[in-house]
Structure formats: C-alpha cells, structure tokens
Amino acid sequence: MRQTAHLLACAGLITLLSACSEAGNNAVVHFSGACDASAAVALDDDLFVVANDEDNILRVYSRLRPGAPVKQFDFAAFLRPEKKAEESDLEGAAQVGDRIYWISSHSRNSKGKERESRHRFFATTASVTNGAAHLRVVGDFYSGLLDDMLADPRLAAFNLQSAAELAPKSPGALNIEGLTATPDGHLLIGFRNPIPKGRALLLPLLNPAELLEGERASFGDPMTIDLDDLGVRSLAYWRGAYLVIAGSTDGQGESRLYRWSPGQAPQRLPAPEIHGLNPEAVAFFDEKAGGDLFLLSDDGTARIGNCECKKVKDPNLRKFRAVCLRP
C-alpha cells in the first residue's frame, strides 16, 4: 500500500484554497448511504473510507465516481454496543502505515446519558487489491481512554471529570472529534469541547498500538491553540502542518479552516467553498493524485422532504456533501 499521506511534508505556506472537481470549480458532490460523515481516510488515489457517527458501519467511496458506497463494513458485532443498533459515535480517524486508528467521542449522548458504547478506540488494517478495499480489525477495542485522561495530573486543570458528565454540546462538556497522525508516528487528539479559556484543547497520544494490547494510554503534554473560541471538528497532518476544521461546540455558526504548526499561531485559511457546508472530516490524496483535499459535510440535520437526513429510513436516500479543495 502507498505511503500514507499523513507523513507527507513540503515547504511553503498555504495562502489560498480553490475548489477542484472534474465537474468544475466550486462543485459540491454527493455521496449516498449515510448523512453524518464524521471521519475519513484516503485508501489509495481514488477510494476513501468514511465513518458515520449515527451507526457502526465504515463505508468506502470512490471520489472519481461519487454516489453510493462501493463497499461497507459493519463493525457493530466487534464494537459490542450496549443496546442493539446503538452507535459508538465514531468521530475521528488517523492513518499510520497500513493501520487506521478510529476514535469515538467519549462523550455522553445528546440527552446527557452515559453510554459505554461511546468509549471506543480501535484500529483496522487497510489495503486495496485490484480496486477492492479491505478493512480488518486489529486486536480488540480499548475503552479506558477517558479514565486514563482523568488519571493524568497534567489534565486536571481542564476539569474533564465534570465535563464528562454533561451532554456533549453543553458549555464546558467533553466531546472528542479530531484525530490525526503526527510525523513521529504518534496520534494527536482534538477536542471540540471543552474550550478552556477560549482555546481549543489538543492531546498527544504516544502509544496507540499498545492500547490495543490492553496497556494504558501514555500522553504527551496537552496543548491549547487559539481558534477564535472554536473547538476542533477535524484534524489532519498535511504538507508539513496541521489542517484544522474548527467549529462551535453547539453546532451554531459556520466552521472555519486553519493551518497550524506547533509553536506558531494558527492561520485562518480563506475557503469560501465551504460556505453552507457543515465540514467535519477531511480525506486527502497524495501528490500523484493531485494533492486534493476532500472536505466532507455532516448533513445529518439537512432536510430531505419533511425529515432530517439522519431520520430518513431508506439508506439509499441518505446523503452527505463533499467539496474538493486544491492548494
């Protein structure tokens, strides 16, 4: 399998993003089968895998042939939710080599009720053979990540114990939505909530592989960055810096796009193409495929007829939007 794009780096500063699509500039494309695109990783020059935070299915799509998933993998039996058909609220994904790590929100549900099913960290291997994608789980999932955070004295100042007792969109609650690989093979977790002192919270995870073997998490020093009072909705390490999709904790207002390097202030990027979207995931393709970024929109509350998309019973009618950006 190709070297993961998460480890690409090149000099230069992104100053402008413009839409790119075979359908023309500023074109928004649609993918069906799910509404709430929440995390994504490119598998090769064409295929990418998407998590939907309303179920436990990972869907593979073709960026060159938008529409229905070309393959899907139901991980409900593996994730062992407390109740039948209960989602694990998968929110972030990061690729290291041929392994993709997936993380759930680790939050309470929208009504503020504790759900053990939402405490999941796991990995799949990923490969593409003769145009067909293959995902297989690695070991078992890990469910102790929040406990490990609460036990780390460096995180005490963020009051995560109290945050974890609130509904995820409440002020000061706990809600994880971002995950990316770092250049040294670690992971970086991004919090949509809380936003301590108006700054987004980031936490390095140093031993992701060992978690799948039952070891406790080892963290680096937590960081906070200024995203103009917004939290992290998605993270990606791309071209030597981190690309951050930032949004409010309660879903109000439009999301923004930032470029950030540790030790520097985040730089907001002009991206008028995302106006009207609800971006929550990004898949990016290597230079041989044009270096394109696919920003995916969480369209769970978009209207389809008289219903919100995520409440439509026919999966063939559910859909989410994506826009392609090229530096």
Task: Outline the fold blueprint.
Layout: E1 18-19, E2 28-32, E3 37-42, E4 47-52, E5 57-62, E6 71-74, H1 76-79, E7 90-96, E8 99-104, E9 121-129, E10 132-137, H2 145-151, H3 160-163, E11 175-181, E12 187-193, E13 200-205, H4 208-211, E14 223-225, E15 231-238, E16 241-247, E17 256-260, E18 267-268, E19 279-284, E20 293-297, E21 303-304, E22 307-308, E23 319-326
Antiparallel strand pairs: 1-23, 2-23, 3-4, 4-5, 5-6, 7-8, 8-9, 9-10, 11-12, 12-13, 13-14, 15-16, 16-17, 17-18, 19-20, 20-23, 21-22
Structural features, described:
The chain has 327 residues and is mostly beta strands. It has a single domain (5-326), classed as Neuraminidase (6 Propeller), CATH 2.120.10. Helix content is 6%, strand content 38%. It contains four helices and 23 strands. It has helices at residues 76-79, 145-151, 160-163, 208-211, and strands at residues 18-19, 28-32, 37-42, 47-52, 57-62, 71-74, 90-96, 99-104, 121-129, 132-137, 175-181, 187-193, 200-205, 223-225, 231-238, 241-247, 256-260, 267-268, 279-284, 293-297, 303-304, 307-308, 319-326. The strands form six sheets. Strands 1, 2, 19, 20 and 23 form a five-stranded antiparallel beta sheet that branches. Strands 3-4-5-6 form a four-stranded antiparallel beta sheet, with no helix packed on it. Strands 7-8-9-10 form a four-stranded antiparallel beta sheet, with no helix packed on it. A hairpin with a 6-residue loop joins strand 17 and strand 18. The longest helix has 7 residues, at 145-151. The chain is globular. The chain starts with 17 loop residues before the first strand and ends with a strand.
